[in-house]
Amino acid sequence: MVAAPLALVGNRVLVVDDNADVALAIGYVLEAHGYAVARANSAKEALDHLRLHPTDVLLTDLYMPIMDGNTLLKQVRAAIPKPPRFIALSGVTHHGRDAAAQAATLLGAETVIPKPFRNEELLRAVRGPGRTTPQQTRL
């Protein structure tokens, strides 16, 4: 896991994916647009990071071994006093009937982004509703 540098408020993103190359690529896109990115390759790494580092957005794969993204979301909500915004990534879609994606939405995910996705989709989701750029206020 690589910790994020000191970030602007609203810009701290934790990317969780069991495929290290995917987490790295997503992080590069976000970093190029002003986000401070930390990466975790498992839900356990993500929980460890979240306990120590303030995070604004948790961007997680839903399908991971040992602990999936929805279980991660439940544990974050139970263990982290001020949980981050939650955005799910799903590599399994069956014409919009992905049960894990539907569950993520019910558990509080702002959105579920199907893989593969365009960088613009990712950036729009991470920025959040009504924002066009990352917030520019220092911590």
Task: Give a structural overview.
This protein has 139 residues and is an alpha/beta fold. Helices cover 37% and strands 18% of the residues. The chain is built from 5 helices and 5 strands, in the order E-H-E-H-E-H-E-H-E-H. The protein has helices spanning 20-32, 43-52, 69-79, 99-106, 119-127, and strands at residues 12-16, 36-40, 57-61, 85-90, 111-114. The longest helix has 13 residues, at 20-32.
* Mass-distribution shape: globular
Second CATH tier, the architecture = 3-Layer(aba) Sandwich
Q: Averaging pLDDT over every residue, what do you get? A: 86
Element-by-element helix/strand order? EHEHEHEHEH
Rg from alpha-carbon coordinates: 14 Å
Concise synopsis of the structure shown:
The protein is α/β, with parallel strands linked by helices and about 140 residues long. The protein has helices at about 20-30, 45-50, 70-80, 100-105, 120-125; strands at about 10-15, 35-40, 55-60, 85-90, 110-115.
